[in-house]
Amino acid sequence: MLQNADLTLSRPRGFALPVLRLSRPSPYALVVWGVFTLLALPLVATLGYALASSWGATLLPDGLTLKWFLELWSTPRFQWAFARSMLVTVGALALSLVLVVPVAFLAHTRYPRLDAWMNGLILVPFAVPPVVSSVGLLQLYAGGPLPLVGTPWILMFTYVTIALPFVYRAIANSLRTIEVTSLMEAAQLLGATPFKTFFLVILPNIRVGVQVAVFLSFSFLVGEFVFANMLVGTRFETLQVYLNNMRGASGHFTSALVITLFLFTLLLTWLGNRQAGHTITKEARS
Amino acid sequence: MTTLTADTLSNDATLLPDTPDTACDDAGPVASPASAAAPEYLRLEGLAKRFGETQVLSQIDAEIAKGEFVTLLGPSGCGKSTLLRAIAGLNQLDDGRIVVDDEEITALPPQQRGVGMVFQHYALFPNMRVTDNVAFGLRMQKVPQEERRRRVDEVLRLVELQAHADKFPHQLSGGQCQRVALARALVVEPRILLMDEPLSALDARIRGHLREQLRDIQQTLGLTTLFVTHDQEEALMMSDRIFLMHDGRILQQGAAEELYTRPSGRHAAGFMGHYNVLLGDQARPLLGDSVDSARVALRPETLYLQPLTEGAMSVALPVRPGPGCRGVIRRRQLLGNIVRYAVACAGVVLSVDALNRGSRHLLAKESEVLVVVDLDEVQEFEE
After folding, report:
1. What are B219-248's pLDDT values in tens digits?
2. How close A8 comes to chain B (CA, Å)?
3. Does the predicted TM-score (pTM) go above 0.90?
4. Cβ of B137 and A191 within 8 Å?
């Protein structure tokens, strides 16, 4: 492959043979498709299993059915787990926005040193492995004045800390792309209070950044298992914990569950990326 | 960009609204024309400001008449923007009073001062269309929608942007953005318009056009205007009066011509018109023994070069020429209609400007010349 690439590079431009090039797939494309296939194969197999009526001793499944999906989606326990996951992640993200937006805004306008502090702080969730910090959290909140372990609250608060780096960076970056100080001054001279300026001028301009952060954090928080299992486990069964608990059930059933989770995450990531794409084209145009 | 050129270079005759007085028929302060000029509409009394150890403004005293266009001119860091922002209320002052129309505004918050401001980088609200940007101030004042729309239309017509009313700032060129910013500041009918280097971010051609348009609008509305720039040419072209600033002080204030031809001191001469500032002793060979001041300033276009090479064309000399001093041309720069020579003469290098009358008149590098001074245009300073 390397040789091939060298040849293409060293060949003078005028002598390129377009016909040959068109008929032979580029080696880079082969690599990309190879990796893609490798990654997609387990998913495709799982999807196949989730759609198979039964798949035993034969090479191909006996028949195709949506039975497993329908059964999963109509199981109350699944619906509850889904709802709980939604509740915890939406709550965590709402809370982190309420906390982070004002902080990022102040760090950007009034207290530049706060930004340095925040940049250090947002590394902590990466530096401490979830298993370690969940043990710590268990110690702290199992009893004492604030017995949160086993309640959805502890999960929600913990998720705020995991989402913090993404949410803070995204908002800080969006603030950097607009001239916050002169926009504030311009609005103030035109008679707007700082409060109005924030909601009419600043917030709409960082909206896209906030959305991207929210969608992306959402998709990985929905897939979070370690904290959910350690801190609340079956007392507040979220999707990932439910998946773990169902591993003894029918393989078709769990396959349908995995595919459902995957599609849901895919949808959210796609929504987040689509927003990011919009911003990029918008910026490129200006 | 193509629409921009066509648009901004449109006929000058269309620059002004057909009926200028309709543009501001509400009895706002803007509406009264410059003819009603009372002296000292805006008074600055002993303004001072320091940032930490540096004194950025000291002893600023000035009076500005209603409808006057005053430019704050000076190199970067001279305090001109700080002064403008202090008048807007965006910077706090340590000392002094600002009075507008007999009302002291020194302690008022920016929104209550009745000032409009245009920023160097426009500071338009990116999430709003042109109309919403312009209407913002009226919305904050809770002006009814019907009137709001009418006033926005009028001011957009004034800055010739009706065609772009529904666009977002990122769809506009720099010149158009700055006109939106101007419209946004004008629509609330400020008592004073402040402009902080509004043309500096634009390219030369747009800048030239917008300069004229700004001046026209200012004259039409009779708007008291403070304009900050570091561009001498811009200041000379646009202003009724120029305040030349240096190290946080107003070095000299006066009409453009006065500032240009009669600088008050060596700093003023150093900033205006590329003056050659020489010590008295250095200037003696050029001026003769009559010089007894510490320093003299010579404007490049008041120096005449008489070629000493044979067969060269002679030049017309001033009415009262100096004794003349032999020199050698060290460098020649073509600035377009002007040729700028660096001439080594009696131990100093002088900058001399001559009109570019064609290649036959150009003097070659290293050729010998006689430098003759117009004695009527020599500025003498005691320090």
Report:
1. 999 999 999 999 998 999 999 999 999 999
2. 39
3. no
4. yes
